[in-house]
Amino acid sequence: MILFHVFVIFLTASLCRSLTRMDIENVHSMLFVNSVDPYLADIRPRPTTVIKGALQLLSIGGLDEISGTFSTLVSLRLSWHDDRLMWVTAFPRPVQNITVKQEKVWTPTIMVRHPVKKRTKFGIDENMAVVRETGEVILTIDDYLETVCNFDVTHFPFDQQTCDIEFMPWIYESHAVDFQQMHSDVGMKFYSENGMWEVLGSEASVVYYTNHRSTYAALKYSIKLKRQPGYFILSIFVPVIMLMLLNSVVFILPTDSGERVGYAITCLLALAVFLTLTSDVLPKTSNPLSILSCFLMLLVLVSALICLLTIISLWLCHKNDKTHMPFILKKFTYFMRCRNRKIRAKNGDTNMIVVNSSTEKSDSGNMNNFEDGGRRVSMKSTKRQITNLQSYEKQPIEMETKEDKYRDVGWKQFSEVFDTVGFILTISVTGTLGFLYVTIAGGNL
After folding, report:
1. Phi, psi of 280 (to 5 degrees)
2. Engineering a disulfide at 153: which of 43, 213, 244, 283 sits with its beta carbon 3.0 to 4.6 angstroms away?
3. At what angle are helices 291-317 and 260-277 packed, to 10 degrees?
4. Tens digits of residue pLDDT in 209-250
5. Would you say 202 and 185 are in contact if contact means Cβ atoms under 8 Å apart?
6. What are phi and psi of 376, to 5 degrees?
7. What pairing do the DSSP bridges indicate for beta strands 69-81 and 97-101?
8. Minimal CA–CA distance to 244: which of 434, 437, 421?
9. What is the pLDDT of residues 162-193, one digit of tens each?
10. 270 vs 276: CA distance, rounded Å
11. Three-state SS string across the chain, please?
12. Distance of alpha carbon 339 from the chain centroid
């Protein structure tokens, strides 16, 4: 029994020993040197060769909205069957696959559809192909691609883009070389994350194009990307909003300071210079036009409007009070200043009854009487007079005319109300524009 186990172990070790260089050379010689029928690399394996494809996305180099360039580093895996490359080796040492140069076997000439630069062959000629004993040929091509992508920068920097990468065989029509997809999406196993773009999803499909009665098959890979907006929010959106808030504070400055117009113009120029410095990161496209560009232009117009309102406010403040002021402006100013509408009489004093704190007891011991200037007055009579006085104060006073009512309202008071309205208006417009931009660009409206 012990000898039997030793024999089994020895036989297993003999069968499982590693391949030698001679074994692989024998397969090469059998396929390409000593073959009865010489292998012709220019001839397709079959009249209709079906090629299966799979794409691995390795990294994203960038997306250029100006030139419409989508830069990626990809790895394309192609496989097909070639019956001329099948072999059978001895059982003790089977050779399952070999590696040969691409030029020694038939390979399809793959071209990239819609390249940015001139059309060239995808990959390099020094690629190596793997040939399996079943006749399956596997070719892996790695290359850096720059393809055309149609960008939609309407919602920049909250935009999402879908870029396509297509591969098609050169010369071969679909009845000669056809394609199939190994997977329904793009492989992301070896993908390196990009700081600017996030991959939301992908799709793999086979499309056909017809040109002059000829149909061509192509491998199409669609990659959906989402831009990371954090950098643009911190570098563009937040500084612009802060500049606009500082610009609106001009209405709080005292009129006599003499710096209001200069401050408003300085804020306008600072906003213009800032937009000039950040213009390199803004998409320079007119169709479609970015919402961010429209938003920044509206903020510049609001800043210019603030300068104009500041000048008008100073003009109103220094206007001569003898100049006629429309009654509607007086009424509006009086209302906005929240003055008390109850105008007191010209003397401004109301006769009050003074009640002496020292009271004397009457001879009869009645405590409900007190003296007022030597005249004995009952408590009930005093309460009645106070009640009549309060009701009198609640009645509208018609002693003064409208002109007397608004006599304290002038151009200076109107300019103060004008500043308050201008401050509230500009703050509200800036906040509303910012909210609408975030809502619309974020796709929530």
Report:
1. -70, -30
2. 283
3. 170
4. 998 888 999 999 999 999 998 888 898 889 999 999 999 999
5. yes
6. -80, 125
7. unpaired
8. 434
9. 999 999 988 899 999 999 999 999 999 999 99
10. 10
11. CHHHHHHHHHHHHHHCCCCCHHHHHHHHHHHHHCCCCCCCCCCCCCCCEEEEEEEEEEEEEEEECCCCEEEEEEEEEEEEECHHHCCCCCCCCCCCEEEEEHHHCCCCCEEEECECCCCCECCCCCCEEEEECCCEEEEEEEEEEEEECCCCCCCCCCCEEEEEEEEEECCCCCCCEEEEECCCCCECCCCCCCCCEEEEEEEEEEEEEEECCEEEEEEEEEEEEEECCHHHHHHHHHHHHHHHHHHHHHHCCCHHHCCHHHHHHHHHHHHHHHHHHCHHHCCCCCCCCCHHHHHHHHHHHHHHHHHHHHHHHHHHHCCCCCCCCCHHHHHHHHHHCCCCCCCCCCCCCCCCCCCCCCCCCCCCCCCCEEEECCEEEEHHHHHHHHHHHHHHHHCCCCCCCHHHHCCCCCHHHHHHHHHHHHHHHHHHHHHHHHHHHHHHHCCCC
12. 48
Q: Residues, the chain, total?
A: 445
CB 24 within 8 A of CB 95: yes
Question: pTM for the whole thing?
Answer: 0.73
- Residue pair 219/202 in contact (Cβ under 8 Å)? The answer is no
| CA distance linking residue 386 with residue 380, whole number of Å | 10
Taking the chain, what is the end-to-end CA distance rounded to the nearest angstrom? 83
Sheet strands side by side (includes 110-113): 110-113, 160-169, 214-227, 197-211
Residue 12 pLDDT > 70: no
Question: Cα–Cα distance between 429 and 244 in angstroms, integer?
Answer: 10
Q: How many CB atoms lie within 10 A of CB 19?
A: 13
**Amino acid (one-letter) located at 282:** L
Sheet containing 97-101, strands listed edge to edge, beginning at the edge strand earlier in sequence: 97-101, 128-132, 136-148, 69-81, 49-64, 177-181
Q: Answer for the pair 430, 247: CB distance below 8 angstroms, yes or no.
A: no
Retrieve residue 162's tokens: 């879908």
CA 83 – CA 96 distance, rounded (Å): 15
Cα-flanking dihedrals φ and ψ of residue 239, to 5°?
-60, -40
Cross-strand bridge partners of residue 166: 113, 220
